[in-house]
Write a structure and sequence with these properties.
- With 135 residues, this protein is mostly helical.
- It has one domain.
- The chain has five helices and no strands.
Length: 135
Amino acid sequence: MNPTAAASGNGISSILAANRSPKPPSDEQLLVRQTFQDFVAGTFYKQMFKALRSTENQPAYMHGGKAEEMFQGQMDQQVAENLAREHGSDLVGPLYTTFAAHLRHKLQQSPAATESTSGGAHTSDGAPPAVKIGN
């Protein structure tokens, strides 16, 4: 899923609004959270499968060669994406809440830094400036 497409409109505002408001989140807020979940949990599960596969030894007989390795890699990717969608919320929930709180804190500190889109500029604390998402 494309993170920039998922965060269309003013994605940063919707992340912050979802964390503050007791009303149900909008479709855009749910899409941003789902994209965050797919990325974070997907990355976690993919790395877990990669580590698992690196510990396996190839059998002396009945090994499918490069074709089997390619298929296994694609299958691992699909399983990791499904795990991220189905069970990633337990892993990502606290991370998303912390991310939104950190983003809210950064926006309150320096709102001008979020509107800067220059590639080389950095904020006063040395971090790259946040990019304004949307129109």
